[in-house]
Write a structure and sequence with these properties.
- By secondary structure, the chain is mainly α.
- Helix content is about 60%, strand content about 0%.
- The chain has a domain of about 40 residues.
- About 15% of the residues are buried.
- The radius of gyration is 13 Å and the shape is globular.
- The termini are far apart.
Length: about 70
Amino acid sequence: MDTDARWWALVEGDGVRLPLLSHGEAQAAVELLQLHAAAGEQGADVAGHLACALARRLPADDVVTRGSPRP
């Protein structure tokens, strides 16, 4: 199984949700995942998917999309 396929299997699995990140850590993770997705390298599609999944769980006014200035 190649690396991307392994990452997709982990992301799409039916695992138990765990509260692992602080609010700030989640915001940083979304931004870092967006940067990785934009780079278009290995894992970019998985990174974009994860960024969207995390961003949906944050309050709407907390999500900063790549390239947007912080208020």
